Amino acid sequence: MRGLRKVLTPFAPDQSGAESVLYELGGIIVILDAGGCAGNICGFDEPRWSSRKSAVFSAGLRDMDAVMGRDRLLVKKICRCAEKIDARFIAVIGTPVPAVIGTDLSAVKRMIEAQISLPVLTMATDGMHLYDRGVQLAYMALLRELDRRGMLEEPGNSDQKPDRAEGHANQNPDGAARDMERQPDGAAGRMESAAFPDGRRTRRAGVFGVTPLDLPDGQCAELIRLALQAEGYDEVILYGDGAALEDYRRAGENDVNIAASPDGLEAVHFLNQRFGTPVEVRFPGAVRMLERAERERSDREKADYNRPDCERPERQGKSCTLIVQSQILGCSIREALIKQEPGQRIVVASWFEMDQGLMQPGDVRLREEDDFTHLVQMLKPDRMIADRVVERLIPAFEGTFVHLPQFAVSGKSEAAV
Amino acid sequence: MPDVRQETGGCKTEDLFQKGTGAGCDAVHKPGGCTVEELNRLGPEGIPEEYVTSSHLVYNSPATLAYNSPGAEGFGVKRAGLAVPGSIMLIVSPGCCGRNTAEITKIKGYEERFFYLEIGETDLVTGRHLKVIPQAVAEIVESCRVQPSLVMICITCVDALLGTDMERVARKAETLVQIPVRPCYMYALTREGRRPPMVAVRQSLYSLLPSQKRIRSSVNLLGFFAPVDPDCELFGMLRGIGVKTIRQISTCENIGEFYRMGEANFNLVLNPEAQDAADDLSRRLGIPSVALTRFYGADRIARQYRALSAALGVKWSCGEGRQEAEEALASLKRRYPKLVFSIGEVVNANPFELALALSETGFCVREIFANPAPEYAWYIGRLAERSPQTMVYSNMEPTMIYYDIAEGGELPYAVAVGKDAGYYHPDAAFVPWNTDEQPFGYAGLRRLAEAILSSCEERYG
Q1: Residues of chain A with CATH 3.40.50.1980
Q2: Is the CB of A86 less than 8 angstroms away from the CB of B27?
Q3: pLDDT in tens, B184-222
Q4: Number of CB pairs < 8 Å for A and B?
Q5: CATH says A286-416 is which class?
């Protein structure tokens, strides 16, 4: 039955995705809800919530607000909050309640902007779509707002602009190698663009589609950084994980913008069209992530094989691997596996948006639990790379299961344990 | 309302976007709050807007999550809706409403009891999801290894706005599966209304009790979804007056036993959120009820028991319970005479009454993290006499983002009671006081004193 879930809990919704992009940018984030959605977002979908403060608020809508459409009260609450809280912008994130009552978010934006000078971003999320749509909406709302205000740095305007033609950066006047900017709450900040003492310019890579909801777990951001540094990038900006507002302003100046998830595609293409910034579509460090997951599986299995009743049958014939992950991560893993062992069949499936251009024959967008079970019955894969929560849907699966967590699915990075 | 554009000193929007309002403006960097003395002076009619959640944005402090989401923590609607043994729940909602249920499924006994029917935009416009609910119920009942005793259909804010008649849909589903099907409403929108979700879920559950012959020696305790502390003197006192069976929803082993709650001679309502359900039972089954309040002040507990004995026309003695509680409190006071308390609202207590009780014992209460309500005026009045400088903060007020959580900078002998107070004071002796098992009466007071003593010994030696 369409929409019926007997095993899996619902995946991260669009409102969580939007919040995930904006969490660290120093704005007042207003979840336009009665309280439950904000609780779900902060308490479940936002792993940074307990360790790093951010001004995330619930609009605290009540039945009469919804019935009477009291947008003026909402605007009053937001403006009053802006009087007290240090903020760079106001973001209003939709939920099912404004979607049902038809709140005009553009009007809310204009009403707020008429009263205060802070820029206002609105995202028409509705809790009925998945997180990736929210991530995409938030990236674009932010970039468009910066662009509209002429605040996106044009390549060539900045003193610290990397020279793509030569691949070098200008000499930093004080000669400092790198400068760690501290966030107001004391959390470690981003790496400031700078030059090396020998005059060599820094090479900077921006990665979109890497919010905590996009990544398998908390350690993956570091793996991405390391992978790109190994490729020769001195500075790696993860948009959605550690990037500051200033990094968005300079996103057009990056040497390359990489979309690591389909929700980052629109942003990197926008920057490409706007500034000509080169685009790559791949998940840096995907191989390392798979190796780590394989190691964990192997450790677990070693323990299992010591048990006499746990012998795996050897399978015959052409091997087939099913990867159920975010599409670009899945594709990057496939590419690496095929390099290792050409000719094997690898199918990438995803519960989330898939880019048609990246899909290969046999790749599948999953929507229902039954889609997944039917796919497994049809493919009969020897190996599956997916979040462990789907294992309960296929109790008869006899192949090798490599647990690669997907936070937006299971909601817990410790699922890797 | 002041114009923030003036407040920001005419800063350009682009500058604010880069630097923030705090860079050149008067953003307040401290949490707002009043002393108990100020609150008492303002009176129940003059409670400042900072404490009225409908008048400001609600800060999503880690301290307040449990109160921001009716399904988030403890016994929210989702967990409470499964209070009947052997029941399962179908959550019919947009995906976002069921997202955090994974947390509850980790709790023992809830692993395979939640199912979801996700609704989308078209469903909301056409209402087609309502047509498939009975079929969905049939499908999940069929997929269960053991036949469920009851199916709860949980619906959320969107159906509140659409005015969905879920009673009717539940009846249709019931006809199809031949087991009871009941709706429960996780309407966060109505949290401060006449029938908040936690009131409605109790009404929904107790509406299942069938009419049956009343038994004089049977009594129900209504109010909690987890058992009352079995050490509570209330059990002994009831048995002393001839009560043989004391039932609570949480201790019923099967649905048959739950149904027998309908035979009770009277209901004791231990949580005001169960009063509407008790009133329903009074109207429908003729079971009268008596409301009791959870106190931590020994005199207040004694007065309440005296009033109850008068209402029931019986005599009982609970001097022993009081003596034990007072001894535990005295022992704590002897060992740690200078404790300084911060009291949160995520506790099994009314934080204002608890603050008063501790203050009456001679302890210092530095602050309370809770919203004062007009009905707490009596406690606030007494507290203003004993501890006028006690600060009262609203967990949900936006400026609480600036509450200074100074790790390592704690006062000597600080004690944080409640999960929220513990968040603000990570170095204090921490007493969560938020267990599922419910403290009540003198036994509750004794256990609290013991828990504080134990935490202080652990923290301060």
Answers
A1: 14-131, 201-284, 286-416
A2: yes
A3: 999 888 887 788 999 999 999 999 999 999 999 999 999
A4: 278
A5: alpha beta
